[in-house]
Structure formats: structure tokens, C-alpha cells
Amino acid sequence: MIILAVFLSVITSSSSLYEVVTAAADPQVPCFFIFGDSLNDCGNNNDADTKAKANYKPYGIDYPDGPTGRFTNGRTAVDFLAEHLGFGNPIPPFTTAKGDSILQGINYASGSAGILDETGKHLGKNVPLGTQVQNHQKTFSKIAAMKGGKDSATKHLNGCIYYMSIGSNDFLNNYFLPKQYKTSKLYSVDKFTVHLATTYRDKIKTLHHYGARKIAVVGVGKVGCVPHMMDMFGTKGSKCIQNVNSAAQNFNKQLKKLVVDLNKELKDAKLIYINSYGMSDGDPTILGFKYITSGCCKSREDGQCVEGETPCSNRKEYVFWDSFHPTETGHKAVADRTYKSLLPSDSDPFDLHSLAALDIGVKSGRRAEETSERGLEL
Q1: In the record, which residues are listed under signal peptide (predicted)?
Q2: Which residues have C-beta within 8 Å of that of residue 162, sequence separation ≥ 6?
Q3: 15-362 adopts what CATH topology?
């Protein structure tokens, strides 16, 4: 079913080694905008006509508000990143964000969504990347009204972090489901990853037109190691499904190239690449994980938790919560390494903490104003 990957930390004897303490002060950036899939969804799918939703128990069993639509037992990676960046509250979902809260950011992520519009639609409705970007254009207009104009809105947004983590479903809920989707017949893996990256690039450039200057692009993790995928397709004696992981690696190469190319093209912006695939290397037992190929909750046929079932009590020992998504502990491991790199390979050219510290000022509000008036093709 939904998305991605195994996020594990490595070579440290304790996850607390990379605990980041945030002082009670102003956030490091004015706002934090999140684009993605069920790894980041915090409630956007709750009222959608889809199987890809998590607003029921045992989801949220360790979250203060209970089930909220987060596809895990507690907080997600972006919840931890918001804390690291100094925000006092989680970034709200687009469906419920209102008033002045939008000035500090919005979470647009949607379970089962992908870069391509059709991805995940066999599960029901979702909000693909293109629509998430369109939703941000609406946010831009609202911020412009609050700030007294498009120039002021652009200046505000120039300092914000834009976090983009999407693409796993384009493989798991599209390319590798030939009975539901034709993409594997239309494209080789190489051509498909180029198609994804080209589409992704267009969306990033649209965001840039609407003020985005600090952009984190997160690579796809080891989707071939997801328990549901291994159960469905079999591993043929390997630890994971190698051809699925190879496709993810191929796509990540395209993403890294995209980041390099856009850093050259967009002189007034900075993009970084987060190597989630590489963070999955190493021995997870070093961090105290004991259960690596099974989820903590009893899963339905589609890989999500069975509603109302009692999950395992030793949740910190599990990498996976259901048959697709990490536990809160897994989410925290990747968030800590995203914010401050543990290894040089974790991010390129630097980590999210360094991106937040960059001084990127507005060059001209004219581009945003012209773009807003004529619109961009998505």
C-alpha cells in the first residue's frame, strides 16, 4: 500500500547521540512547508474517499492527540524536524490550516500520492504533487493578502524551508503494479526515472516562482525492503527485492542530478539532497532494533493496521509500524540525521540545519507577481 521505506541510523551506539535540543526561542526559519506522501501526511487524507488513511486506532497510540492521520504510532520525521527548527507546534495539514498559522507553514502531504497524478489512485483519492503545488499557490495568495502584497509574501517565503519527500509510490503504487498501471509497459526503468525527475523539476521551479529559495529534496529509501512488498513479491532468497531497490537507486541518481542542475540554474536559491537510501545501510540492531522485517501492528491485506487491534508493546524495537511505514523511533532516526548529518553522505551539499542558517534574501518580487497573474502550467 502506501509508501516507503526503511529509515535506519547507523554506526552509533545510541540514537540519543544525535538528539538535537532546541531552545525555547524563535524558529530558525519563518516557516516550514512540507510536500510528500504518507510518510509525511498528518491528516490531509482523513476525509478523502480512499483506503490510504490512518485516522483510526492503533495509529497514533503514542501521539498526544491520538489518531490524527499520521501513518505511524507517534510523531513523523517532519514533526521532529519542526521541533529541531524551533517550531512550538507541529505544522498543520492543508485541510485544516487557517488564519495566521499558515505564516509558519503548511503540510500538504497526502498518503498514496506520487509525483505522477495517477499514482496510488487504485486506493482512492489522493493529492498528487502537482495539486500540492497548486495548493501552495493558494497559500501564497493568502499570505500576500496578510502581508500587504506579493513582494512582502515573497520576501517572507524566501527564508522558509521547503521539504519535499515523494516518489516511492510512483514505484510501489504504480510502476510495480502492472495489473493496475501501464507505466512498466510504456517505460523502461531508466526512462521512467527520467520522466519522474523531469516532472519533479517542473514542480520545484513553480515553487521557486512563488518564493521558495531553501529546498530540501529527499531521496527514495529502500522500498524493496518494505515488508508488504517482500510478502507480495517474494525475495528469491535475498534480503530485499533487488530490482525494486535498483529502480529506487536509479531515481535517486536523477534526483541528485536535478539538485545539482537547479543549483546552477537558480542562482538565488539553494537545494540540498537528503540521502535516505544511504541512511538505511548498516546494522539496525546497533540502535536497539530487533524486528526489521515485520510491523508492530497486525496488518490488513493492503499493509495497513487492522482497526482496533492491539499492537506490540515493545514499539521501540521495531523498524516498521505497519507493513509499510516506520515507527516513531524510525522516523526520529532519519529526522536527526536529516537535520544534522551523521555521515558526509547523509546530505549534499550540506544538511538541513545549514540550509536553515543560509541568508537568502528576496531579489525581486516582480517574478512572483508576474507568475501569479499569468499562472503556471502544472
Answers
A1: 1-16
A2: 33, 35, 207, 212, 214, 215, 216
A3: Rossmann fold (3.40.50)
What is the tens place of the pLDDT at every residue in 185-207? Answer: 999 999 999 999 999 999 999 99
SS3 322: coil
Strands (E), the chain: 32-36, 161-165, 214-218, 270-274, 291-295, 318-320, 347-348
Q: Is the pLDDT of residue 2 over 70?
A: no
Q: Is 299 a catalytic residue?
A: no
Mean pLDDT of 236-246: 90
Our answer to whether residue 122 is catalytic in this structure is no
Q: Where are the alpha helices (DSSP H) in 127-182?
A: 129-147, 150-158, 169-170
pLDDT value at residue 22: 41
What pLDDT was estimated at residue 360?
Answer: 83
Catalytic residue selected from 37, 41, 79, 322: 322
Catalytic residue of the set 136, 156, 208, 325: 325
pLDDT value of residue 147: 97
- Whole-angstrom Cα distance, residue 38 to residue 54? 9
Catalytic residue among 38, 110, 112, 165: 38
- What is the pLDDT confidence band of residue 32, given thresholds at 50, 70 and 90? very high
